[in-house]
Prior knowledge:
Low-confidence stretches: 503-507
Number of helices: 15
Distance between the termini: 76 Å
Largest sheet: 9 strands, mixed
Mean pLDDT: 89
CATH topology of the largest domain: Rossmann fold
Strand content: 25-35%
CATH architecture of the largest domain: 3-Layer(aba) Sandwich
CATH class of the largest domain: Alpha Beta
Oligomer: single chain
Shape: globular
CATH superfamily of the largest domain: ANL, N-terminal domain
Number of domains: 3
Structural class: alpha/beta
Amino acid sequence: MSTLYNRLQATAVDRPDHKAIIGCDGVEVCYQELIERVKQFSLSLFSQLKKDVRPHVAVLMGNSIEQIVVTFALSRLNAVVVPLNPELKDEQVCQALSSTAVGLVIVERGRLLSCGPTVQVLPIETLISLSVEENVDFVIPPWNEGDTFLVTLSSGATGDPKPIMLSEQSKLKRAQQTWSLYDVSADDVVLNASPFFHSLGQRLTFVALLKGATLVLMDRFTPQRWIDTVVSAGVTFTICVSSHLYALREQLVSQGKRLHSLRTIVSSSAAIDKELKDYLFEQLGCAFYEIYGATEIAIASNLEPRDASSKSASVGAPCRGVEVVILDDQHQQLPVKEVGEIACRSALVFSGYLSQPEQTEAAHHQGYFLTGDLGYLDEEGYLYFVSRKKDMIISGGSNIYPLDIETVILEHASISECAVIGIKDSYLGEAIIAVCVWQQSEEQQEWAVRQWVNGQLPPFQRPLKYFFVEQLPLTATGKLNKRALREEYNQLGLDLSEMIRAFNTSS
Length: 507
């Protein structure tokens, strides 16, 4: 029988009246109500599934109590759960279903979907209305500990999404890792502002419910809604993607005193600038951590408050049970302070990419997962993230790491956010540009920003052009979408190195 379902059932026995979930609409359910709903949904789903195979079932729903009930019901049935972004267009959904061998898709209220005769579409309201007797012959396929339970599609920010396979044991161990790192208990109130189709949303869901804590759901992030939710629900613990923290910057400064319930906040997905990090460490009034990880490997490193002053530029030390090495392009291990690809090995690693054995093999080297990120280790073993490997810019023969430039730009008082990318250039190979968001209160003075940056960086690192926008594009999971930026600005057909060519020709 399912590990996750059994743990939820045990909690319902031990703490039946304890608040399990606070939904996006404020509706609350206790653990006894939650397990009863899971049991009823599992019976209804059982009536719709083939009985002789482990079904692959997609869940096309936003954050909701019903979505969580469906997930645990499918766990009880030993099905493979495929969470999908409900904002995907129909053709994108169909492509995802095809790549994950899905035969049934459960859709949220009001969603119409047509994916051909091989895929059954089951609206959630239909599932709720199904009445199945409890004495039904409830026989499910055999359950094995290493079976794939959940297939998560990577964000696809740097290419086609990969179907990442994870077992129930892996999900439980990842929850246990989080409990241990941040001392999460059954008395905590855990905020999840990330969608369940993203690994962070899954982690926060299981961290709360497998511990017997209270889970608070947000279906749509805005800075003020986040602040109000923390206050009203008495949130004690959360993990945020870095883009949410940047968006929250002003509210955290102006309304930080309202967040007296918040015990621990963790930043994930991308490194944040030193100014914001220092504020979170020193002034927010709660414990602040920064982590590095990936869906394939869970949390690989963790920067603790005690290391905030001496190691603030790092993303922490490798977690217990995690080995981190830095490799060159030939997969040879590099010495300390040398930049190369970050590779990780642990018991929390994923099972592989569904039906993609070649991609799975290519993503590993001698048991290490190759993250595709660039970084280095210092003498004490602390990890420093430099750039996404694919984000590295090669301009004029030099390797340019965008984070180095972004850090300098963000030190200017007029800039609230920025992204540095490389666009195609016939002379340099790639030309460096910076796409920036102004602080609302600041007068737009491009020359001042350029003068500041040129005073801090050598010529080969200076952006050739600055673009100013109201907001930077994000992926569906809230990450900065540099792929979209590169596509947008490459389409402009700019020739930014013309002056450099003219200078070099005349000299």
